Amino acid sequence: MKAVEFANAVSSLGAYHAGMNTPPITLPLPETADLSPRQAELLSRGRKAAQGMLPNMYRAMAHSPALLDTYLYGYDAIRKEGGFTPAELEVIFLVISYENGCDYCMAAHSLLADAVSRVPRDVTDAIRNGEPIPDPKLRVLAEVAREMLLSRGRPEPGTLPKLLGAGYDEKHLLGIVLAISLKTLSNYTNHLFDTPLDSVFKVREFTAFKATQRVFEYFSPRRG
After folding, report:
1. 70: number of Cβ within 10 Å
2. 91 to 63, 95, 111, 127, 204: CA distances (angstroms)
3. Is 159 exposed, middle or buried, given 0-12, 13-18 or 19+ CB atoms closer than 10 A?
4. pTM of the full predicted structure?
């Protein structure tokens, strides 16, 4: 990344979370009466996947049926075939969402981690606070996921041996690629819409004020 481009990216992210920018997209979240048959079908799938609730993120995504369809299919597939336990997958999603500065997904996945995937609270809170995860295996998984995300899929030579040493295999790197892809869809949608947080997620509300510093720490000392 060029120095000027990096500086501009950091400045933009910091300004956004300081409340200096407005969401780039002004489309309202669609109401039931305004849905096309395709949107209605996809949101019905989304409601079923979310166990009866309809997340505002899905409503935002419904403006592009192809986007929502891709996300729902991929999310279901990674849950079933990604090769990770529910807790491991939640850790990966949280790490990616933290690094991308997505308040919405941090809140949603924190609640899912607590109530559904049974991630130990100290693990989830460590991710939210930008601190090392206390569980050794999950810490390695989180570090590799972060490395894959921030290196744009070009991890350093020691990354794979570290993953293998923690009990994972090379196919898990591909699972992380899929997780990054899915969270890119959701995180970026939420950035564009500044998606309102659903009331059910407010118990784990999050503000990504640390994201700019985390990106800076990654690139400046060792990426030159």
Report:
1. 15
2. 29, 6, 12, 8, 15
3. middle
4. 0.83
Element (H, E) at 149: helix 136-150
pLDDT truncated to tens, each residue of the chain (224 aa)? 444 444 455 444 554 444 445 778 889 998 888 899 999 999 999 999 998 999 999 999 999 999 999 999 999 999 999 999 999 999 999 999 999 999 999 999 999 999 888 999 999 999 999 999 999 999 999 999 999 999 999 999 999 999 999 999 999 999 999 999 999 999 999 999 999 999 999 989 888 655 555 555 555 544 43
Q: At what angle do helices 171-193 and 86-100 cross, to 10 degrees?
A: 50
Q: How far apart are CA 96 and CA 111, in angstroms?
A: 16
State the Rg of the chain over Cα. 17
Spatial separation of the C-alpha atoms in residues 215 and 122, rounded to whole Å: 23
Is the Cβ–Cβ distance between 125 and 209 less than 8 Å? Answer: no
For residue 185, the one-letter residue type is L
